[in-house]
Amino acid sequence: MAKISRDKYKVEKSVFDQFTVRTLRKLESDGFFDIETLVPLYMGKESNIFIGYGMHGDVVVKIYRLENCDFNKMYDYIKNDPRFMNIRKNKRDIILNWVKREHRNLLKARKAKVRVPTIFLVKNNVLVMEMIGNPSMKIKDQIPSNPSTFYKQLINEIKKLLNAGLVHADLSKFNILNYNEKPVLIDFSQSTPKDSLRAREYFERDLRNINTFFKKIGVKEKELKTIEDFKKK
After folding, report:
1. Which residues pair with 59 in a beta bridge?
2. 82, 136, 139, 145: which could form a disulfide with 179 (CB 3.0–4.6 Å)?
3. Which helix (H) or strand (E) holds 185?
4. Residue 187 catalytic?
């Protein structure tokens, strides 16, 4: 793995508050990664994603920003989740529970044998996960060689997730990896129980997103658009 220079890391570190830096140092001392080898992968809406190296080999380090993320939007999602009904509308409390939510969702998806990254640890606003591939690219950047087969596999993963009682709620070409021509789902912070207040709305939005993408790349399969469609399948 290419190493990031000490000067480069200082630049990246400057976007984080001292609470986050202390969390990273603790994880480093526990052997999860070496801070000086963290390589920026991409910046998301609420988090920065790095590749690191430690006791689990190459890992993805997802760091939620405490100072400049849309915690009001987070609250709009999490307040309808029956598992987090008593959350306070406090910025740090919302963000730290948001991270716990992603952790919990990933564990549940993994238990249901949905193709998702293994999660090694969550601490405060940091998640350490398995790196898929070297790393694998999102389907928007690596179009499946057989889109129809890939689409069918993806539908099966969504069905397994639904049977486990979860709706992804943020599924799109940005949150599906192409790993050896098979889909891997990522970014589970918005995922919600299928019996929560807006789950159907989120589920059908997910389906519109993936149907639109796969139609553009030539898939002509009959589209599944509702929860009822999955029950019939």
Report:
1. 52, 130
2. 136
3. strand 182-185
4. yes
Catalytic residue status for 195: no
- Print the domain residue range for 159: 137-232
Which region, left, alpha or beta, applies to residue 130 given φ > 0 means left and ψ of -120 to 50 means alpha?
beta
Domain count, the chain: 2
- Burial of 145 (C-beta count, 10 Å sphere; 0-12/13-18/19+): exposed
Dist CA 51 CA 80 (whole Å): 32
Choose the catalytic residue: 187, 195, 206, 229: 187
Element holding 183 (H helix, E strand): strand 182-185
Residues 106 and 150 in one domain: no
Crossing angle for the helix pair 91-111 and 71-78, to the nearest 10 degrees: 50
Can you say whether residue 117 is alpha, beta or left, with left for phi > 0 and alpha for psi between -120 and 50 degrees? beta
What is the per-residue DSSP string for 39-97?
Answer: EEEEE-SSEEEEEEEETTEEEEEEEE-SSSS-HHHHHHHHTT-GGGTT--S-HHHHHHH
6 pLDDT above the threshold of 90:
no
Say whether pTM exceeds 0.70.
yes
Average confidence (pLDDT) over 45-69: 90
The catalytic position among 7, 58, 141, 170 is 170
| CATH assignment of the domain containing 17 | 3.30.200.20
